[in-house]
Design brief:
By secondary structure, the protein is an alpha+beta fold. Helix content is 52%, strand content 7%. It folds into two domains: 6-65, DNA Methylphosphotriester Repair Domain (3-Layer(aba) Sandwich), CATH 3.40.10.10; 75-181, Homeodomain-like (Arc Repressor Mutant, subunit A, Orthogonal Bundle). Helix 3 (77-92) crosses helix 6 (125-143). The longest helix has 19 residues, at 125-143. The structure holds zinc ion.
C-alpha cells in the first residue's frame, strides 16, 4: 500500500471511517477474516492486523470475508465509478486537481461525475479530495514535527490560506489547535 502508512490505516479503522472503504482491507490474523475499514465489529489488536489493497490479495493470503461488513459484496456500476475515482484521488491528492481532471480520468463528463459521486457518498469529489488532504495533514500534525507550512504542501493544499480554511471547515479547529489537543 503506497498511499497510506500502516499507522494511517490503523487510525482510519479505529475511526470506522467509511470514506476509505474499497481502498484497502483489514485482515485479522487470529480470525483469518478480512473487513472494510468501516466495519463495526470489535477492533482487533494492532499486532494481529495486516492490510491488503485488494480482495484477491487478502483471499490469496487465506482470509475470508467478514459476514458483518461484507467487503466482497458486488458493486453497482455507480459504486465502481465512485471507487475508482476515490482511488485516483488518494493517489493524486498532492496535485492541483480540478473537477475536469477527475472527470477526464473517469471518462465521463464533470456534471455526470459530480452527480453520481454526490448521490453515492453525499459529498462532491472536491469535498472528498479535501477530506483526504485534511486527514493527511491531521496525521502529520499528530505524528511529525513538520511546520504547518510544510504540512500544508505535503498534504496537497495549494496555499496556506486554503489549508487553514479547509482544515477548519472539516475539523472545526485550526491546525495548531488540533496539534495541541
Ligand atoms: Zn467486518
Amino acid at each position: 500500500m503506497d498511499n497510506f502508512s500502516f499507522d494511517e490505516m490503523w487510525e482510519k479503522i479505529m475511526a470506522c471511517d467509511s470514506s476509505y472503504d474499497g481502498l484497502f482491507y483489514t485482515a485479522v490474523k487470529t480470525t483469518k477474516i478480512y473487513c472494510r475499514p468501516s466495519c463495526r465489529s470489535r477492533k482487533p489488536k494492532k499486532i494481529n492486523v495486516d492490510f491488503y489493497e485488494t480482495i484477491p490479495e487478502a483471499v490469496e493470503a487465506g482470509f475470508r470475508a467478514c459476514k458483518r461488513c461484507q467487503p466482497d459484496a458486488g458493486l453497482s456500476p455507480q459504486m465502481e465509478l465512485v471507487k475508482s475515482v476515490k482511488s485516483f484521488l488518494v493517489q493524486h491528492y498532492k496535485e492541483p486537481l480540478v473537477l475536469q481532471d477527475i472527470a477526464d480520468f473517469a471518462g465521463v463528463s464533470p456534471f455526470y461525475l459530480e452527480r453520481q459521486f454526490k448521490q453515492a457518498t453525499s459529498e462532491t469529489p472536491r469535498e472528498y479530495l479535501e477530506k483526504i488532504r485534511v486527514d493527511k495533514a491531521a496525521h502529520l500534525l499528530k505524528n511529525t514535527s513538520l511546520t504547518n507550512l510544510e504540512i500544508c504542501y505535503e498534504a496537497g493544499f495549494q496555499s496556506p490560506s486554503n489549508f487553514y480554511k479547509v482544515f477548519r471547515t472539516v475539523l472545526d479547529c485550526s491546525p495548531s489547535e488540533f496539534r495541541n489537543k
